[in-house]
Amino acid sequence: MQIKPRQHLLDIWQAISRHSFESGAWEWGEWGGRSSVADAERLLCLMYPATEIPAFRLDDPDTTERDVHAALKNVGGRVDIPAKLVQILAEFMRTHTTDDKRPSFAGGYYFVPADPEREITEEQRRLGVVDSFSMSITLCLATLGFLKIYEGKTRRGEVRGLIDELRQATEARLTAAMVSLLRSFTVNAFDAEEPQGRTLCSVLGQGRLSDRVVVERFQRRFAALRATIGESFVLGVDIADRLKDENQLFECGWAWSLVKEAPPVETSEQIGPQPDGVARPIPYLYFTVVALDGIQDLFSDRTLTLGLLNPEQQRLAEALRLRWEITQQYWSGIARFGDTTWPLEDIPWRTTGQRLESEYFSLSIASILVHDLVRRRATDDDLTRTVAVMERLAERARIVSRMTVGDKAIALHSPGIRLPLQGSSETGNPMQWTMGDFSVQLLKRSIQLCTLSRNISSHDRLLRLAERIFDHVWKRRIREGVGVGLWDNVQAVYPAAPSGESPLSWSITERVTECMVAGRQLYVQPPIRSNELAAYASSLLSEATHLLGNEQLEPTSSHDASRGIALKSVEVKLNRARELLDRQPGSAVALTVEILGELDGLALARHTASRGV
């Protein structure tokens, strides 16, 4: 199925308009209670395309496209749409603010008990989670950019007053989210003889290297990174001492929530009291990927161009950027550790902190590697090997192949991978986090890699893979009942899959929206230039230029104006072909072949006329 970002986004917006604006007013719904994660995901389905894609802008009613307005007709007229968005966003900010006036990042019903027979407490549901920190950064930046344009387009007094309130709340939430991500980052050092160390040595050695050799190579490969972490971060005394010991292995990344005993971050912004952390200082691959996705929005061209960060937020952003770069370098090095086969290619990946094994964790490692490949402009070899990993993951997850009877791969999609949240038991019963977005995450990374690739072979493989994955994802839309046109109906593809409790998944829907925005970026960039086609086009242009010059030497009768017009048309097309040569050699070839045909027609007509005389 061909990926058509514009049309698919319009379909998604129309479905959201039908679901959430059925009566013309925004309806949050009652299922499961409120979750800052789910609510942010829901709003991002609208705000992310509206701020990332010019054709989907909603901040200037005069420029709203006709098909965009038609998709959101339940919301109201062109002038009503941005005003209602301001009201909804302001309600979100108020709802997810605690009694002591600090932004709330509660996981809510996204937290599930490890033991289905036991309930989790309301206090646990109010715990912040990295998903919410990261989503809030993206949502707050989208909101601030939206307000920056819209406030100059409206003169309605009540709306302008609400804009001021929303801006203040959004800036406070953005700062609080950045502070929370800083306090969720952790470095975990451990001995090679500990269970975590043995697991990491096994993953890196792949059964071919002894633990001693792995530790020696680890020391050499990550010596500079170890020194950077030690010098740049304020770590606990115990961690700092262990990190200095080169015989210690380490991991870095984000825990699932605020790390226990993480010190408050000093800031001049009014964000309220900073809560105590509960998470054990152990990085999670899933939450690390989520954090990296949000942090990169702080450095996007749009954020910088619009000046969305104040000086204090810029200081916090630089601290996050350092962690972002170090984390990418670390996990990219882990994924490509060794001289021959990459550990990433040994599917499925085994985590050290949680001691779990799944294709989902292989995808998480690949996602971080994609981040790093984009950052450092990857080599063709890196890209080719990563493409093969993506293809294998799609195969193993039965996305591009048939699900067999009793196939364990179905658990990747429903109910998803359950991740134990270490440290959650200190406030009640142990909790888990469910990850059921394997297909859309694989789609997103495949599209991002396709955008990055400038190798025709790898690009075509990735595009074909992305289209097959998208075909799978699109079939999983809800066909009837609540949430028609949204996600996620796993049974539509895997009839044997257990049905979920939620009527729809905003998590999957939001990630599909992200994929469409990424798909748009894929198509707006220039096509890959073929050297072979460029050389072929140059040869054709040389011949066409010569033949045109020769044809222009022939006399033109005043009674034959059509020949002069034809020569002028050929000249214009030839100049266009020269302009396209470097950027689109294939188009230059097609245009030049057409020119050669026209020139031959003129020569034939002239030759026939001379023989007739």
Kindly describe this structure.
This protein has helices at residues 5-20, 36-52, 66-71, 80-95, 122-125, 130-150, 157-184, 195-205, 211-221, 223-232, 237-244, 285-295, 301-306, 311-335, 359-376, 380-396, 438-452, 456-475, 506-524, 531-553, 561-580, 585-612, and strands at 111-113, 185-191, 248-254, 349-350, 357-358, 417-420, 431-435. By secondary structure, it is mainly α. The strands form 3 sheets. The protein has a 3-stranded antiparallel sheet with strand order 1-7-6, with no helix packed on it. It has a two-stranded antiparallel ribbon with strand order 2-3. Helix 2 crosses helix 6.
List the SSEs and their pairings.
Elements: H1 5-20, H2 36-52, H3 66-71, H4 80-95, E1 111-113, H5 122-125, H6 130-150, H7 157-184, E2 185-191, H8 195-205, H9 211-221, H10 223-232, H11 237-244, E3 248-254, H12 285-295, H13 301-306, H14 311-335, E4 349-350, E5 357-358, H15 359-376, H16 380-396, E6 417-420, E7 431-435, H17 438-452, H18 456-475, H19 506-524, H20 531-553, H21 561-580, H22 585-612
